[in-house]
Amino acid sequence: MSQEKPRKKRIWIWILCGVVLLILAALAILFFVIAPKQDAVAGLTFEQCLNYTTSDTPDAKIGVVVVKNGAANISFYGNNGGRIPYDSYEFEIGSLTKTLTAALILRAESEGTLQLSDPINRFLKLPDQAYYPTIQRLLTHQSGYRGYYLERPMIENFFDGGNSFYNVTQGMMRRRIGKVHLQDRDYPFAYSNFGMSTLGMVLEEVYQQSYTDLVNAFVRQELGMQHTRVSDGTGNLSGYWNWAEDDAYIPAGALISTADDMAIYARDMLSGTLPFLARAKEPLAKINATEASLAKLGVRMDSAGAAWMIDDEHGIVWHNGGTSNFSSYMGFDPERQIAVVILTNLAPDYRIPATVLGAKLLIELQNETN
Questions:
Q1: Which of 50, 93, 69 has its CA nearest to residue 333?
Q2: Which of the pair, 249 or 39, is modelled with greater confidence?
Q3: In what order do the strands lie in the sheet with 255-257?
Q4: Are 106 and 198 in contact (CB under 8 A)?
Q5: Residue range 80-116, pLDDT digits in tens
Q6: What is the DSSP secondary structure assignment for residue 95, as one 8-state letter?
Q7: Whether the Cβ atoms of residue 353 and residue 322 lie closer than 8 Å to each other
Q8: No. of helices (H) and no. of strands (E), the chain
Q9: Can you tell me the distance from the alpha carbon of 170 to that of 181, in angstroms, rounded to the nearest whole number?
Q10: Rounded CA gap, 366 and 333, in Å?
C-alpha cells in the first residue's frame, strides 16, 4: 500500500509535466505558426482554401453540400482539390451531434415533458444541493460546467491516442455532477462537452431509453437520415473513434453521417417544418464569445440557440465538429434560405479546417445573392 501511493504520485507528476509541455508547445505554435497563417487565410477564397488544404493529400475526401431554396447539390473533392466520384462516405461529425441532442430536448419540450427552465435534478437522482443548472444553461454553454472533468480513463486515452472520452461511464459523470457546486446565474460562455452529455442522461430519464437507441431512431424515423448513427468504430473510411456502450460523452460527439443525410438535416433546419427544429435556431442567449482571430476568418459566436452558434453580423446559424481524423461544419442563413455542409476525413488541425472552409463558402454564397 505504501509503495502504491508514491507510484501514483509519480504518474500524476508525469501527466502534469506532459500537460505543461503541451500548453507551451501550443502557445509557441499560436504565436509563430497559426497567427501568421490566419492573416494569409483571411484573404483566400473558398476554392483557394480547398485547394491548399488538399494539396498533395492523396487520401483526402471532402464532401461539400450546398442547399439553396430547398435543392441540395453535393460534390466531393480529393487530392489537390480535384473532383472525385460521389460515394456514400461515412464521416464522423463530432460535435454536430450536440445539435441533434438539443433537437431531442426541444422535441421533449414540445411534448410537454420538460421545460428549458427545469434544473437537471428534476430528472436525475443527485445529491442534495442548493442549485443544479437548468436545461437552457446547458444548451447555451452558460451552466458553469467545464468542457470536461478529468477521469481515470482519460489518462489511459491520453497515452493511447484516439477518443479522449472512451470508457468514461455515466456512473462517473453522475458522481462528478454531484461534486460540482454552482450558483444560480448565467456563467460566461464556456463550451462544454460535459454539459451537453448531461443532457443526454436527462433524455434517457425522460424517454426511459438509452441515448444511442433514442437518437438512432430519431434521425432515421423522424428526420429520414437513414445512414446516420452512433458510431461503433466501423465505416467505409478509416480512423474512427472507439466508443463503449455506456460512454457518457456519446451525446456530445459520437454520430457518423453521410453527405446525403446532412443535406436532409440542412434542409430541415432551413424549412422549419418541424417546430422543434425551427426553435433550435432561435437565439436563447447573448454570449459575445467571438475571438478576434476567428472573426478575421468569418467565424463569429455572438449569440447561442439550442446548441447552435449564431453569427449576428452575417445572419448565420452554425456548428462544427471535430474528432481525431475528421472535421465538419454546418451553417445556414435562414433569411436567404442557404445552407452549407462541409465533411472531411482530415483532422481539425490539418491546414484549413472545415469550419473556416464552410464559413467562407457560405459568406461567398450570401454575397452572390445580395
A1: 69
A2: 249
A3: 91-92, 255-257, 229-230
A4: no
A5: 999 999 999 999 999 999 999 999 999 999 999 999 9
A6: G
A7: yes
A8: 14, 11
A9: 19
A10: 8
Amino acid identity of residue 348, one-letter, is P
What predicted TM-score, i.e. pTM, was given to this entire model?
A: 0.90
d(CA 324, CA 35): 22
Cβ(297)–Cβ(359) below 8 Å: yes
CA distance 92 to 228: 10
If you search the block for the grid coordinates 446547458, which residue do you land on? 138
Q: How far is CA 22 from the centre of its chain?
A: 23
Separation CA 245–CA 142 (nearest Å): 28
Amino acid at 245: E
Tally of residues, the chain? 370
pLDDT digits (tens, 9 = 90+) for 300-345: 999 999 999 999 999 999 999 999 999 999 999 999 999 999 999 9
Q: pLDDT digits over 18-35, tens only?
A: 555 555 555 554 444 444
Q: Which of 289, 298, 302 is nearest to 41 (CA)?
A: 298
- Region at 107 (left for phi over 0; alpha for psi -120 to 50; beta for the rest): alpha
Cα–Cα dist 92/232, whole Å: 11
66 strand-pairing partners = 73, 340
Rounded Cα–Cα distance for residues 82 and 75 (Å): 11
CA distance 317 to 339: 9
Measured between alpha carbons, how far is residue 127 from residues 43, 201, 364 in Å? 53, 16, 51
